[in-house]
Write a structure and sequence with these properties.
The complex is a heterodimer of chains A (380) and B (264).
Chain A (H helix, E strand, L loop, with lengths): L2 E5 L9 H5 L15 H21 L3 E4 L13 H11 L4 E7 L6 H14 L4 E5 L4 H6 L7 H17 L4 E3 L6 E4 L13 E5 L3 H9 L4 E3 L4 H18 L8 E9 L3 H8 L14 H4 L7 H9 L14 H6 L3 E4 L1 H15 L3 E5 L7 H21 L1
Helix pairs in contact in A: 2-14, 3-4, 4-6, 7-8, 13-14
Chain B lengths: L6 E8 L2 E8 L4 E5 L10 H6 L4 E5 L16 H15 L4 E6 L1 H12 L4 E7 L19 H8 L10 H4 L4 H18 L9 H5 L6 E6 L7 H10 L3 E6 L6 H4 L1 H13 L2
Parallel strand pairs in B: 3-4, 3-5, 5-6, 6-7, 7-8
Antiparallel strand pairs in B: 1-2, 2-4
Classes of the chains: A alpha/beta (380), B alpha/beta (264).
Chain lengths: 380, 264
């Protein structure tokens, strides 16, 4: 049984390639003077309408995320967005993918996520992410610390949720002598923890060792299959039998009444794509962000490439590769069935809008997915 | 990496860690500490200094692909490690010279312990936050930008091809480890210690502060602040010169250093 989640980056869709062209990078150097809060107000309202509709028409969940210094994601706080989802929806699971826990006080993270779990009545899935390197740079933290801070924050958050307070935590990065968060999660022992990745085998292995479902964020199918195999191998080494419930896949997808309309609107999935992560390697993979061990794993598996979101393939080529799926309900059902047969994901995360796609088209897409596509995909 | 027949490349053990070491010459000891870019090896100015000194040029812990001791996270940790290295080498009445981040480390080492320390030479040293200017960003920029920042006029650099050519795969790995280590040590506070000027008030070791006037990474103002903070320091400014005087203006650099050493 595949569960289907709605996802939107909540892009600031007014930015164009021409705006971005003159700057050294698409994130840190692209000035926020291009941001108009009044326009953002309208966009946020639209995105929240899309959430409410996704809940009404039968999506199993809504996924959200967080980025910093990014025109293509207006969510500097996934917890704030999750609070909105909790109030504009009634039934969907809320998958936060997730909190950049290396960069925040883990006790406050544990409290906020517990609060969200209580507000939503136990609908929270708590993803933890390392973030793109820019998240760490933007936070003013050395990229060399991200991995160790992530590990410590993870352990402290889980302890906050599972061990009665007060207790002492004398970690290297987040020392607290009195920890006693009043608010704890509804779900016991704690909300499910997910972990995402694009191309890094190290991420897959980390998740598999902890039995945390791994969400692949839209890599090409053959690479994704290899990563899934690594998860399954690792799981068996750890002594448990993995299944679809341990694996999810994010895919860009838009449904319209006709193939023609979907093709036209879906082209926007490639909006400003060459600029999104543009910048020197010092921005995207600064030395020390990956462990020397991760570099070694990468070298020992030469077939493993990088993530594909942002990779320069054409619109048609990406559709042929099933990396972007657009069309009428019939077309999309057929292509999603192919994804299901190929990857057997327990979770299908629908990356459902982009750039300045018209709000009406996105709302129609949500409706057609809920009424036609999701029931058909689940039938199989 | 430049090496000559008159230098030895060896490995010494310091506090349980293997340290890569270039050394050469004869005479009293001079320990050179490299900057955030790592150990570029035995340079022409080391060769000149080796005519009158026994010169030691180590790859500091974690740099140049060497292992980082598990406990070493900060500049203070590195200073303690380097003091262990001074003891392991058995240096008596040594001259401590540091460039850029290495200058910061040398200043902190002197503040920490001056036993056996005869003189200090700080070259374009990090460590003090300027008031009127800024230390340039060296991590969140491309490799090309870093090279452009480093030299005032690269055509003055005798071995400019070492800095302009495409790095080999091995050189890229070494550069990666150097940046990783420098990021760990220098990220926050950025390339300085707010308390260092106060430590330095007690450091009466004879000190030469050498700066390129056009230093685009650590501004000359920092050199003036070192001179003001230390009771026995003199600043020598080299004209038409960037962040690496030993590489960009070797004759002027050596003349300033030799004059200082001769007066000790």
């Amino acid at each position: 049984m595949t569960e289907v989640f709605w996802f939107s980056e909540q892009p600031y869709g007014h930015v164009t390639d021409d705006d971005l062209a003159g700057y050294e990078s698409g994130r840190m150097h692209f000035p926020n003077t291009y941001f108009d809060p009044e326009k953002a107000h309208v966009l946020y309202s639209n995105y929240h309408d899309q959430y409410a509709l996704a809940d009404e028409v039968g999506f199993d969940g809504i996924m959200s995320n967080e980025h910093h210094s990014s025109y293509w994601c207006m969510k500097p706080s996934v917890n704030v967005d999750a609070a909105v989802i909790a109030k504009v929806t009634k039934n969907v699971k809320i998958a936060m993918l997730g909190n950049v826990i290396a960069l925040n006080d883990p006790v406050k993270m544990a409290e906020e996520i517990a609060m969200l779990d209580c507000i939503s009545g136990g609908r929270i899935i708590s993803g933890f992410v390392r973030g793109t390197a820019v998240e760490t740079l933007h936070a003013g933290i050395s990229p060399t610390e991200n991995r160790d801070r992530f590990e410590e924050a993870h352990d402290l958050i889980v302890k906050c949720w599972t061990d009665p307070g007060p207790f002492r935590w004398e970690g290297r990065y987040f020392p607290h002598r009195m920890v006693n968060p009043w608010v704890v999660p509804i779900q016991k022992p704690h909300p499910e923890i997910w972990f995402p990745g694009t191309g890094s085998p190290e991420s897959v292995i980390w998740a598999a060792k902890r039995m945390y479902p791994y969400m692949n964020l839209g890599s090409l199918l053959d690479l994704t299959k290899q990563l899934k195999d690594i998860y399954f191998e690792t799981a068996r080494e750890e002594g448990y039998e993995p299944g679809p419930e341990h694996f999810g896949y994010l895919i860009r997808c838009l449904v319209a009444d006709t193939d023609e309309r979907a093709q036209e609107v879906g082209r926007t999935f490639l909006w400003t794509e060459t600029h999104r992560q543009r910048g020197p390697i010092e921005f995207n993979d600064p030395p020390g962000y990956q462990s020397r061990e991760a570099l070694r794993i990468k070298q020992s598996r030469p077939t493993i490439g990088t993530g594909t979101i942002g990779r320069r393939m054409g619109y048609e080529e990406l559709q042929d590769a099933h990396n972007i799926i657009v069309g009428s309900p019939e077309t999309v059902i057929q292509k999603l069935r192919y994804i299901k047969q190929t990857l057997d994901p327990g979770y299908l995360l629908i990356y459902g809008n982009e750039g300045d796609m018209p709000h009406e088209d996105v709302m129609r897409s949500v409706e057609l997915m809920g009424t036609k596509v999701i029931p058909a995909v689940k039938e199989d | 990496m430049t090496t000559t027949a008159s230098s030895n490349r060896t490995t010494i053990e310091v506090a349980g860690t293997q340290v890569e070491m270039f050394s050469g010459g004869s005479g009293p000891p001079l320990l050179f500490l490299h900057g955030a870019g790592g150990n570029a090896g035995w340079q022409a100015y080391h060769e000149e200094l080796a005519k009158t000194y026994t010169v030691y040029v180590p790859s500091q812990a974690g740099f140049n692909g060497t292992e980082r001791p598990e406990w070493l996270y900060t500049i203070t940790d590195l200073c303690h490690f380097n003091h262990a290295m001074v003891e392991a080498l058995g240096l008596k009445d040594y001259v401590l010279m540091g460039s850029s981040m290495g200058g910061w480390v040398a200043a902190e080492m002197a503040a920490m312990c001056r036993a056996n320390l005869k003189a200090l030479i700080l070259v374009g040293a990090a460590g003090i936050k300027p008031d009127k200017s800024e230390i340039a960003e060296i991590f969140m920029v491309s490799a090309q930008t870093r090279t452009a920042q480093r030299f005032h006029d690269i055509s003055q650099v005798p071995n400019r091809e070492d800095y302009e050519g495409e790095p080999t795969a091995e050189e890229q790995l070494v550069a990666h480890s150097n940046q990783e280590m420098a990021s760990r040590l220098c990220w926050r506070p950025y390339l300085h210690n707010p308390s260092l000027p106060y430590y330095l008030g007690r450091v009466d070791t004879p000190t030469l502060v050498v700066w390129g006037r056009q230093d685009a990474i650590i501004p000359l103002e920092c050199g003036e602040l070192f001179e003001a903070a230390m009771p026995n320091a003199q600043l020598r400014v080299i004209e038409n010169c960037g962040h690496s005087p030993g590489l960009e203006k070797p004759a002027e650099f050596l003349s300033a250093v030799n004059a200082f050493l001769a007066g000790l």
